[in-house]
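User: Okay, second chain of the day. Same drill as before: sequence in, structure tokens out.
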Amino acid sequence: MSSNVYIPPVGALVDVRYLYAHPEGKLHISTYKGVRDDLDLSACSTAQLKYKAGDPLPFFALENMSFLQV
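Assistant: Same drill. Structure tokens below.
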């Protein structure tokens, strides 16, 4: 199978644009934007996900509410 973009190695940090996240962790209408080599793993959190209005937040987002950016 071929791809029109570079596929990063497992464990690489990547930038993904998406419309919204589902409570079970799936991203709706996602687009791979590229590798992020300017960040480390500490910059990544499920609390950064934006959820569809009306969907209940998953347990891991509720635990990290203080980290959500508005």
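The CA atoms of residues 45 and 67 lie 9 Å apart.

User: Thanks, on to the next one.
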